[in-house]
Amino acid sequence: MPTLNLFTNIPVDAVTCSDVLKDATKAVAKIIGKPESYVMILLNSGVPIAFAGTEEPAAYGELISIGGLGPGVNGKLSETISEILQIKLSIDSSRFYIKFYDSPRPFFGFNGSTF
């Protein structure tokens, strides 16, 4: 159930969006150690964002998971997602924040119930 919610201030076409979604899904699943079938990625493009006083390309992300997170994993996730954003969207890693949440099982719902 890892869920990565990404926001960027640049417009993203459908092909590039699909590439980001696929790459991020594979990366999150591999790094956290959960099946791709459990991973959800959202990409919100064209969102007004000011970072360091400018509206140059930037991004913000939140990754929520039930377990699997920790200092080493979080660092690898930050590095890998930054690389995806740099390669696919030309967003410099110095203009990307990501926040990690380790959610208790009863606080995350799926299929009409909770985990």
Describe the SSE topology:
Elements: E1 3-8, H1 14-32, E2 40-44, E3 59-65, H2 71-89, E4 96-102, E5 109-110, E6 113-114
Parallel strand pairs: 1-2, 3-4
Antiparallel strand pairs: 1-3, 5-6
Helix pairs in contact: 1-2
Provide a descriptive summary of the structure in words:
By secondary structure, the chain is an alpha/beta fold. It is built from 2 helices and 6 strands, in the order βαββαβββ. A 4-stranded mixed sheet has the order 2-1-3-4, with helices on one face. Strands 5-6 form a two-stranded antiparallel ribbon. α1 links the parallel β1 and β2. α1 packs antiparallel against α2. The protein is globular, with a radius of gyration of 14 Å. The model has no long low-confidence stretch (mean pLDDT 97).
What series of H and E elements makes up the topology? EHEEHEEE
Question: What is the count of β-strands?
Answer: 6
> What is the helical fraction, as a range of percent?
25-40%
For the residues shown, what is the average pLDDT?
Answer: 97
The global form is globular
Largest beta sheet, briefly? Answer: 4 strands, mixed
Distance from first to last alpha carbon: 9 Å
Which stretches are low in confidence, meaning pLDDT under 50 for 5 or more residues running? none
Strand order of the largest sheet: 2-1-3-4
Residue share in β-strands: 25-35%
Task: Compute the CA-based radius of gyration.
Answer: 14 Å
Q: Provide the structure class.
A: alpha/beta
Helical run tally = 2
